[in-house]
Amino acid sequence: MEPFKIVAVSAGLSQPSSTRLLADRLVEATRHLLEERSPRPVDVRVVELRELAVDIAHNLVTGFPGPALRSAVEAVTGADGVIAVTPVFSASYSGLFKSFFDVIDNTELVAKPVLIGATGGTARHSLALEHALRPLFAYLCSHVVRTAVFAASEDWGAGDTQSDSLNVRVTRAGRELAALVLQQPDGAGSGDAVVPFEEQLAKLRISQ
Length: 208
Description:
Number of helices: 8
Number of domains: 1
Distance between the termini: 43 Å
CATH class: Alpha Beta
Radius of gyration: 18 Å
CATH architecture: 3-Layer(aba) Sandwich
Shape: globular
CATH topology: Rossmann fold
Strand content: 15-25%
């Protein structure tokens, strides 16, 4: 049975990185929901952009990706669902994050289910998700889930990675991405038919 392919792109620069930590939590939430609803296995890959920074710069000036960058691009374009997480600098995504998606042909992510996330020192940066990341993937014609997840320093607490508020948002976003992946032409694994909203509304009116 072909596994679901979930690829997370983390643009964190430090190690350890709160950006990578958020990416990992979003991955696990998505994996859990997919495994709960489908018998298909889930294959996960995390792309660390800091390890590809030199390759990305070379590709931008030469037009030719190295083997590691080519592998990362193929993983993202071949994924059933993508999780894209960046730190926020100057009220927007990082230059490394943007440069990586500039490397990808702008037709390769059409209709691709995407979950966006970001990290920053304060919740004031959370608007970057809506005025920077969401428009980027809208331009690429990706299918971005409704819930975007921002994690500020206070969300982690004093070493606490299980903030209730953050956990609720991560779980909701993972559920939404899993639902989109399952709705793909080859993604149905639960055996449950997707009932159109209009049909659900009609049934509700009849029952009232």
